[in-house]
Amino acid sequence: MNLTVSTWNINSVRLRIDQVRRFLQDKRPDILCLQETKCPNDKFPLKDLQSYGYPFIVHVGQKGYNGVAILSRYPFSQTSVMEMCERADARHITVTLAPEAKKAAGITIHNFYVPAGGDVPDAALNEKFRHKLQFLDELRGWGDKAKPTSAPAILVGDLNIAPLEHDVWSHRQLLDVVSHTPIETTTLEDLRQSTGWTDAMRHLRPEPEKIYSWWSYRSPDWDAANKGRRLDHIWVSKDMTGTLRSIDVTRETRGWERPSDHAPVTAVLEL
Predict the structure, then answer these.
(1) Rounded to an integer, what distance in angstroms lies between the CA atom of residue 43 and that of residue 41?
(2) What is the pLDDT of residue 8?
(3) Of 196, 192, 209, 66, which is closest to residue 131 (Cα–Cα)?
(4) What does the alpha-carbon distance between residue 232 and residue 213 come to, in Å, rounded to a whole number?
(5) Contact call for residues 43 and 18 (beta carbons, < 8 A)
(6) Angle at alpha carbon of residue 79, lines to 20 and 152, rounded to 5°
(7) Residue 163: what pLDDT?
(8) Distance (Å) of CA 78 to CA 101, 105, 108, 115
(9) Total domain count for the chain?
(10) What is the mean pLDDT of each run of 10 residues along the chain (271 residues)?
(11) Which of 42, 154, 171, 222 has the fewest beta carbons closer than 10 A?
(12) Digit-coded pLDDT (tens) for 123-162
């Protein structure tokens, strides 16, 4: 069987619920992980999303910012959330697929929304950047302690870091811009490799191919300028690397009316 997993920073699930519906109808992933839902739990559009063919949904959110959710065709045997940096700010949710998922049963899926980090890449001057680095340190510690890749697992999300040279439109010009500074890129790659994750995108589509999943709202013509960054990621545990068959960015969503500044990333695994 194939398992199709998508991740998308939707930048308000209620504002863009029609775009979620359109994407689900077009792409039909088995799993869709959303970040930045910007929605308190009691306002989450659960019934609408279930009506699109995704009866199994978990979510955690708060008013106006952050928030993560997982939509699935398959039921879950377990769900949980982690609080990072001693903050209950809805930046992680995880599920393990139940036996009804057949060959996908037992796979654990982690959905993360890493802090953006503000504009100044100096932890001494910018509390938001300090928070981002602390979050990454805790993510590394979680990997060392919990060993999430010791069983089949997938980690997805808006990690808010473009780690490689060809993950940004200009490596040289963005070296001092938050999301591509050396301390961020090195830290992310170190924790990925030390925990035993495979970067699905770069496994199947290695550099020097330029790949982006985010384009700034500030650009008057984002498509023509194409000054993007690859901030959205799908990682798989080493034992699942051989199952990867394809991965792509649904770039056209960035051109939809009132779009998110992120585009969905979708991987197909053959189990």
Answers:
(1) 5
(2) 99
(3) 66
(4) 6
(5) no
(6) 90
(7) 98
(8) 13, 11, 9, 26
(9) 1
(10) 98 98 98 98 97 98 96 98 95 98 98 98 97 98 96 98 98 98 98 97 98 95 97 98 98 97 98 98
(11) 42
(12) 999 999 999 999 999 999 999 999 999 999 999 999 999 9
37: which 2 tokens? Answer: 């839902």
Residues in the chain, total: 271
Q: What is residue 22's predicted lDDT score, i.e. its pLDDT?
A: 98
| Structural domain span for residue 245 | 2-270
Q: CA 203, CA 192: separation in Å to the nearest integer?
A: 13
Q: State the DSSP string of the chain.
A: -EEEEEEEE-S-TTTTHHHHHHHHHHH--SEEEEE-----GGG--HHHHHHTT--EEEEE--TTS--EEEEESS-EEEEE---BTTB----EEEEEE-GGGGGGTT-EEEEEE-----S---TTT-HHHHHHHHHHHHHHHHHHHH-GGGSSEEEEEE-----SGGGBS-TTTTTTSTTSSHHHHHHHHHHHHHHTEEEHHHHHS-TTS---SEE-TT-TTHHHH--EE--EEEEEEGGGGGGEEEEEE-GGGGGSSS--SB--EEEEEE-
CATH number at residue 101: 3.60.10.10
Give the pLDDT of residue 264: 98
Model pLDDT, residue 53: 97
* pLDDT at residue 220 in the model: 87
Place of tokens 């308190």: 40
Write the pLDDT tens digit of every residue in 46-57: 999 999 999 999
Within 10 angstroms of residue 222's Cβ, the number of other Cβ atoms is: 18
CA distance 222 to 256: 12
Contact 230, 201 (CB under 8 A): yes
